[in-house]
Design goal:
Elements lengths: L8 E10 L8 E8 L4 E10 L2 H22 L3 H6 L1 H21 L8 E2 L1 E7 L2 E7 L4 E5 L2 E4 L6 H10 L5 H5 L20 E8 L5 E5 L8 H11 L4 H15 L7 E10 L13 E5 L5 E6 L1 E2 L3
Parallel strand pairs: 2-14
Antiparallel strand pairs: 1-11, 1-13, 2-3, 3-4, 3-5, 5-6, 6-9, 7-8, 7-10, 10-11, 12-13
């Protein structure tokens, strides 16, 4: 049997789960980046429908999609050939499971979740997303959002550009953050499934995040990446988290995100000061943050 080709790129990744000032967690995030393999993925969901219901919905979405990708990852070449089908089926399965759980309990009626799942294969990036969780690409000093934003604000932009709504009216619209597509057990109005890859380059930084990260604003996130982009994924993640803390916002939402650096084979990122792979930090307001390196041994 021929040996599989050695990947040109590998990934340095770090993941943050922060409960915020409200000390509750409706996000769920998992990732898989086996060391030595040019393959990895992140699955993130942000729950809705109240604390308990949102927590369950996000966990259902992440479990269903992660399980499907993990099962298919034994043959990355076959997975890539079927990536659109696999991601689409995983979304439908997660949506169905959320609907079944919701239908069996009045307490969880109306539960739902957003979903974001980027898949990295050597120099190629695919994803599926439903909702408003952003997927960012930072390259050569500039950050851009890759996936669609399924929130009314994106529809408002279309209305303004089409001349249907005035700019002032759009900016003051009370429902800009209202989601236009979620996993809730019903038909999914919008699914962003990228089955044709975005080509990655050495030095690219990919960030998959819940909308809680956007409290910083995209300009501030980009500025931090310009400053710390040559450091390890863990240091970048830690820097973003510290910036959120500096805002000292009493309404800070929970936030989960994964930072992934694209590196050439044999290149080592600048090491973090703290060699511990997983750190749990309790803040003065009772919030809990988990900062974890997610690169693991192969197999």
């Amino acid at each position: 049997m021929p040996m599989p080709p050695v990947p040109e790129f590998l990934y340095d990744a770090a993941m943050v789960i922060d409960q915020g000032r409200r000390a509750r967690q409706e996000d769920a995030i998992v990732s898989d980046f086996p060391a030595g393999n040019g393959f990895g993925f992140v699955v993130l969901a942000d729950g809705m429908g109240g604390h308990a219901a949102g927590d369950i919905a996000s966990k259902i979405a992440v479990t269903e999609v992660f399980s499907e990708l993990k099962m298919q990852s034994g043959d990355p070449e076959l997975l890539e050939r079927r990536i659109g089908e696999v991601l689409g089926d995983a979304v439908l399965s997660a949506n169905e499971c959320i609907g079944l759980y919701s239908s069996r309990s009045n307490e969880h009626e109306g539960m739902g979740a957003t979903l974001l799942a980027p898949v990295l294969m050597d120099d190629r990036l695919y994803w599926v997303s439903v909702g408003d969780s952003p997927l960012y690409l930072f390259r050569n000093g500039t950050m851009s959002r890759l996936n669609a934003n399924h929130a009314l604000v994106s529809q408002i932009d279309f209305l303004v550009n089409s001349g249907i709504m005035a700019r002032d009216e759009a900016l003051s619209h009370p429902d800009q953050d209202c989601l236009t597509s979620v996993l809730a057990g019903r038909d999914i109005p919008q699914i962003d499934c990228r089955a044709t890859p975005v080509q990655l380059m050495h030095g690219d930084i990919v960030i998959a995040a819940s909308d809680g990260l956007q409290i910083l604003g995209e300009a501030r996130i980009e500025a931090l990446l310009r400053f710390a982009g040559n450091q390890s994924a863990e240091r970048i993640a830690d820097g973003l988290l510290q910036d959120i803390g500096r805002l000292d916002d009493p309404w800070q939402d929970n936030v989960s995100f994964c930072v992934v650096k694209v590196q050439k084979q044999g290149e080592a990122a600048q090491p973090a000061k703290d060699p511990v792979l997983r750190r749990k930090i309790k803040g003065r307001n009772g919030s809990v943050t988990i900062l974890a390196k997610v690169k693991r041994s192969a197999g």
